[in-house]
Amino acid sequence: MKYSCAIFDLDGTLADTIADIAASMNRALELHGFPRRPPEMYPGIVGYGIKKLAFDALPEETVTEEIAAAVAADAARFYAEKPLVHTRAYPGIPELIAELRGKKFKTAVISNKPDPVARIVVHGLFPAGSFDLVQGERQDMARKPDPAAVWEILVQLDKTPRDTIFVGDSEVDMETARNAACFPLGVSWGFRPVSVLKEAGAALIVDSPGEISAFLN
Fold first, then answer.
1. CATH number for 62
2. Model confidence over 55-76: pLDDT tens digits?
3. Are strands 133-137 and 164-168 parallel, antiparallel or unpaired?
């Protein structure tokens, strides 16, 4: 199959964002009188959006919809203020994106991070023109693993699922790829174990950005 479009997850795939996410959520937890969570807890609970993250970070015996919404709102505000303190693109990722662009690939980012912050992070880490489209969570669009956002992007790029690989580090991403009928390509350097990617239906799991390049050649 000759692919000509690559859609990427952001957190744990293009960039190591976990320290800034953890700092923002911990600040919000403290603001509301709850204990901070250890940084090593966060890789296993990110990926489903800020409100779900708040639910999972709050003590189980105290969590309610109202409390989770309040903590999530403050965490999102704190994160928007400082999204790039510790965040860095993974080694080899900028070079991979530049190579794909040089080969006329269409490239896009879909994240469950709030849309304005997703754009800030991507534009802060990558040169202008690295991606045709960047889309985070919006009120008018279901979040991953719903395939609607993927299909919307493909329409805008004049591509089909058969043209497209979906690259991600979590079960959310593999489910999104499968739901959208794109090729589900997992990366091992992100926030979830390889076993999780396999169970979620990854068709290929790579250990470096160079392996993505080799697969597409």
1. 1.10.150
2. 999 998 888 999 999 999 999 9
3. unpaired
> Quick one: 65 and 91 in the same domain?
no
Write the pLDDT tens digit of every residue in 135-192. 999 888 888 999 999 999 999 999 999 999 999 999 999 999 999 999 999 999 999 9
The H or E element spanning position 120 is helix 115-125
Residue 196 has pLDDT above 90, yes or no: yes
Q: Cβ distance 11 to 18 under 8 Å?
A: yes
104: nearest Cα among 209, 4, 195, 180: 4
Local structure of residue 193 (DSSP, 8 states): -
Residues 94-151 pLDDT 10s: 999 999 999 999 999 999 998 999 999 999 999 999 999 999 998 888 889 999 999 9
Among residues 32, 47, 81, which one ends one of the domains? 81
Among candidate residues 41, 62, 81, the one where a domain is terminated: 81
Long-range CB pairs of 137-141, under 8 A, 24+ apart, other chains included: 137/49, 137/50, 137/111, 137/112, 137/113
Residues with Cβ within 8 Å of 141's Cβ and at least 6 positions away in sequence, in order, are 135, 148, 149, 152
- Domain limits at 202? 5-16+87-216
Predicted TM-score (pTM) of the model is 0.93
Question: Do 110 and 202 fall within a single domain?
Answer: yes
209 contacts: CB under 8 Å, gap ≥ 6: 90, 91, 92, 93, 95, 96
**What is the number of domains present in the chain?**
2
Work out whether the CA dihedral 62, 68, 73, 77 comes out positive or negative: positive
